[in-house]
Design brief:
Blueprint: H1 2-14, H2 17-55
Helix pairs in contact: 1-2
Length: 76
């Protein structure tokens, strides 16, 4: 990706429209590839983390319903 950025900078200096277009497309492709790899890695980490946390649960999750009353003591 660094080389694609450098190539585009060089093309911008030369003011060659066709070269600028092709180098821009090359940079976009590099960005898409990096983004896809990052997304895939994040999905894998999330999947492995969810599996580990589901297995490590202790099962002691008790939920208790409670009644409450709002008391207005006149102090605002």
């Amino acid at each position: 990706m660094e080389s694609a950025i450098s190539d585009l900078k060089d093309a911008l200096q030369k003011d060659d429209i066709e070269t600028i277009k092709s180098r821009t497309e090359a940079l976009q492709t590099a960005i898409y590839d990096v983004s896809a790899a990052m997304y895939q890695k994040a999905q894998q980490e999330a999947a492995s983390g969810a599996g580990a946390s589901a297995k490590s649960g202790s099962g002691d999750d008790t939920v208790e319903d409670a009644d409450y009353e709002i008391v207005d003591d006149g102090k605002n």
